[in-house]
Design a protein that fits this description.
By secondary structure, the chain is an alpha/beta fold. The protein folds into 2 domains: 197 residues, inorganic pyrophosphatase (n-terminal core); 121 residues, Diaminopimelate Epimerase, Chain A, domain 1, CATH 3.10.310.30. It has a 6-stranded parallel β-sheet, with helices on one face. Strands 7-8-9-10-12-11 form a 6-stranded mixed β-sheet, with helices on both faces. Helix 2 runs parallel beside helix 4 and helix 2 packs antiparallel against helix 5.
Length: 328
């Protein structure tokens, strides 16, 4: 497995500090959470650092099978460290970490590790932003293996989840030989994949099953079936007894329909002003990131997201001409 010089430099920066705050973008996905937990297990078990994780969003319930090696805070005031190194992962803009994060970051030493297209990072000590990496978890794995030939078992579990989530269980176009070599290295831990897949895939509630059943009936198709889209009003969560995280994976599910090139999921947020979270997926040359950068969003060419003020109907009307142009 190749170890980047960037991984060596990040490792050197980390070793200079005893207290480290790890953070990842708000509403964290599997790659963000897996990367943070993988780094936390490495720092606590192999480098013997004092560590905590901050995110303005609660820890995702669907990832609760992954054990925490350190405190997880949703309030910056609770962090006990006076002068920590702050490590931001899976995003390279402070605003992606929440409204309060930028102010907390000011005056502190920091590093940034991310694999999304966008800015070059906010780190004062080091920035490693590389969109050729399949997942941020792949970058964390290189840092771990720059220090040791073996990863702690719980570290390897978390990094497997990170890689698996951002590669569609190693089926997306970003699954290259370097990603598979990273997977092989994690497997040498040794790592039992079957129980991890069971925990990731087979933990649905009856409410989620019925929720997805309803969503299937709500999917609409445009542009001769090249676009599949769904808009989810905020009232549906209470109606079905589910949470926002129960939507995880549905935007990918719509791509299973033959001839669909782009999928669009819009979920209405529960707040005072009309606001919609948008997720888009595609394959091949269809660039959904370029669509959502028009709305201050970001991500990858084939997987991107944004938050847009407006009702579901208004947001769809805003996106429509951009999707139409992309599908021409």
């Amino acid at each position: 497995m190749h170890i980047s010089p960037h991984a060596e430099k990040i490792l050197a920066a980390i070793k200079e500090h005893d207290e480290i705050v790890l953070s990842m973008h708000a509403n964290p996905d599997g790659d963000a959470v897996g990367s943070a937990l993988g780094m936390a297990w490495f720092l606590t078990q192999q480098l013997h650092k004092r560590v905590c994780i901050y995110n303005e969003s609660p820890f995702p319930k669907w990832l609760s099978f992954l054990p925490l090696p350190c405190p997880y805070y949703t309030d910056l005031q609770e962090i006990p460290f006076s002068d920590p190194l702050v490590a931001g992962m899976d995003a390279s803009e402070p605003k992606r970490f929440g409204e309060a994060f930028a102010a907390y970051l000011a005056g502190k030493k920091s590093i940034c590790i991310d694999h999304h297209l966008g800015t070059s990072g906010f780190g004062t000590e080091y920035n490693w932003v590389d969109h050729t990496m399949a997942a941020t978890g792949q970058m964390i794995a290189q840092i771990v293996y720059a220090h040791s030939e073996k990863a702690p078992e719980n570290c390897a579990k978390a990094l497997y989840v990170a890689l698996s989530c951002d590669t569609g269980n190693f089926t997306f176009g970003n699954t290259d030989s370097a990603c598979i070599q990273c997977l092989a290295k994690l497997m040498d831990t040794p790592l039992a994949v079957a129980p991890l897949r069971e925990a990731m895939d087979n933990t649905w509630s009856e409410q989620k099953m019925r929720f997805w059943g309803k969503l299937m009936t709500m999917v609409r198709f445009e542009f001769d079936g090249k676009l599949a889209w769904v808009g989810i009003p905020k009232e549906m969560y209470a109606e079905f007894g589910v949470a926002k995280e129960d939507l995880e994976g549905f935007v990918e599910q719509m791509r299973k329909v033959r001839n669909v090139r782009i999928t669009l999921l819009m979920r209405e947020e529960i707040q005072d002003v009309p606001f919609v979270k948008v997720s888009m997926r595609s394959a091949g040359d269809d660039d959904v990131r370029s669509i959502l950068t028009e709305f201050n969003g970001g991500g990858h060419k084939n997987a991107a997201g944004a938050g847009i003020f407006g009702t579901l109907e208004q947001v769809y009307a805003m996106l429509y001409p951009h999707i139409e142009k992309a599908l021409q």
